[in-house]
Amino acid sequence: xxxxxxxxxxxxxxxxxxxxxxxxxxxxxxxxxxxxxxxxxxxxxxxxxxxxxxxxxxxxxxxxxxxxxxxxxxxxxxxxxxxxxxxxxxxxxxxxxxxxxxxxxxxxxxxxxxxxxxxxxxxxxxxxxxxxxxxxxxxxxxxxxxxxxxxxxxxxxxxxxxxxxxxxxxxxxxxxxxxxxxxxxxxxxxxxxxxxxxxxxxxxxxxxxxxxxxxxxxxxxxxxxxxxxxxxxxxxxxxxxxxxxxxxxxxxxxxxxxxxxxxxxxxxxxxxxxxxxxxxxxxxxxxxxxxxxxxxxxxxxxxxxxxxxxxxxxxxxxxxxxxx
Length: 324
Prior knowledge:
The chain has helices at residues 12-23, 38-45, 54-59, 75-85, 99-112, 127-137, 164-181, 260-263, 265-281, 289-304; strands at 3-8, 28-34, 49-50, 65-68, 89-91, 117-119, 144-152, 185-192, 199-205, 210-216, 224-231, 235-237, 246-248, 251-253, 287-288, 312-313. The chain is an alpha/beta fold. The chain is globular.
């Protein structure tokens, strides 16, 4: 039986989720969409139902699972509504706009005694990151000691302010670093370049590993994400994420995209495919609501400590047994 997917929010990510559900995901179909911009919703729906509000979409018998891709400030409320309705949800990051709201979602899911929220940290489904984790987990580089991350954007959006380089961008590195190392982050220190960009964020884990991340919001040349793990017996790194190399006008090499959409197109497709399978089977995959909470909690603590000249001690509550 095909799973009806409802998509809330049809901006860049939501419209891509809608397209995937309608055309590319086995065992699923696009049951409907909602967006505050009715014209944008109709364009993304491509003939599917356009709902008058998000609650109507969540409540519909035609919708078996929900993608939450609306503005960040609505995520927690909609995730809670999905939990109340007993419907699996794939929530784009962040899980909530504050750590306190994210914890409310975790507590509601724990009370339900069933994992049904997945947070859209799609790098966990990227083939390169998956291969890095496989090699690390099978001992291919020995015990890990360092993880170097690079996160570069062409330019910061106009709506980016103050700590958003940490709370909106660096959260990806928080999640993928926890996932790759299998460790928890216990301290962080931030150094800022002229004008506050780029940032160099150095974290230590509970196993003594060092995690360094360059967050460069105005790198100019393209969207570029990279990672390298250093172990006692070797290293493993992402290869250049390009299907082809190009030669023109006396120069050659790979071409970087303007944003994350083409870079992680395959990861998003794999993420939705696995989420649909998990929703049908009742077996959760990907980043949990707890993972979403931890990423937001660490990001908030790092951002709060940016003005200091000492490392910030990081802390989160004990992990609930539901996420063991």
